[in-house]
Amino acid sequence: MPEIEVKDRNNNTVEKITLSEDVFGVRAKQGVLHEAVVNYLANQRQGNHATKTKGLISGGGKKPWRQKHTGRARAGSNRSPLWRGGGTIFGPQPRDYSYHPPKKMKKLALLAALREKLAGGEIVFIDSLSVDKPKTKDMVTILRNLGLQEKSVLIVLPDKDDTIILSARNIPGVSVMRAVDLNTYEVLAYNMLLMTKEAAKKLEGLQAS
């Protein structure tokens, strides 16, 4: 792979690195990416929608009128789905939408998504990312220096950093995630990825394991 520029927080090139072909050079069919995104969204669904059937609605224990000789249709409950205020026929019930595709497929989709981002110039690599204390203004300045203002940005770190998380949480369209937690949906959902050099190395280590 060609050498990639690594920036500092002032957008100056400090070095060039060669990324792993096994992480940032993997190709996959679009169907694999699509399936990974659909799977992620399905796993996020709560599935707690519910409607009441005839047996779940209170009342209706007494037969409205006798079975015969009234001239009306037979009725056993005023909570029948045919009656106003009655139960719902075939309404949605709580269910689990999640499913688990093969791990190799999910991994392939993630690597292919990273390749697409890199090929499109949508990943900025930075030597390190830190702030002295949680301050939104400092994070806004860093993003502006890197030309990432007014864009949705996913900041990828090697490890959890509470100061970065707190500094970025009030900036619209900006999120922070560890390299080990990356998934296809999050990679594709943002305009840009801001990834530290150490986070890129961590991804290479995950691929090798």
What's the structural blueprint in terms of helices and strands?
Blueprint: E1 3-7, E2 13-18, H1 21-24, H2 30-44, H3 103-119, E3 123-126, H4 136-145, E4 153-157, H5 162-168, E5 174-178, H6 184-189, E6 192-196, H7 197-208
Helix pairs in contact: 4-5
Task: Briefly say what this structure is.
Helix content is 34%, strand content 14%.
Q: Which blocks of ≥5 consecutive residues have pLDDT under 50?
A: none
Distance between the termini: 21 Å
CATH architecture field of the largest domain: 3-Layer(aba) Sandwich
Q: What class, by secondary structure content?
A: alpha/beta
Largest sheet: 6 strands, mixed
Structure in words:
By secondary structure, this protein is of the alpha/beta class. It folds into 2 domains: 3-45 and 100-208, 3-Layer(aba) Sandwich (Ribosomal Protein L4, Chain: A), CATH 3.40.1370; 47-96, no CATH class. Helices cover 34% and strands 14% of the residues. It has helices spanning 21-24, 30-44, 103-119, 136-145, 162-168, 184-189, 197-208, and strands at 3-7, 13-18, 123-126, 153-157, 174-178, 192-196. The protein has a 6-stranded mixed beta sheet. The protein is elongated, with a radius of gyration of 27 Å. The two termini are 21 Å apart.
Task: Name a few traits of the molecule.
Ribosomal Protein L4, Chain: A; 2 domains; elongated; alpha/beta; 7 helices; 209 residues
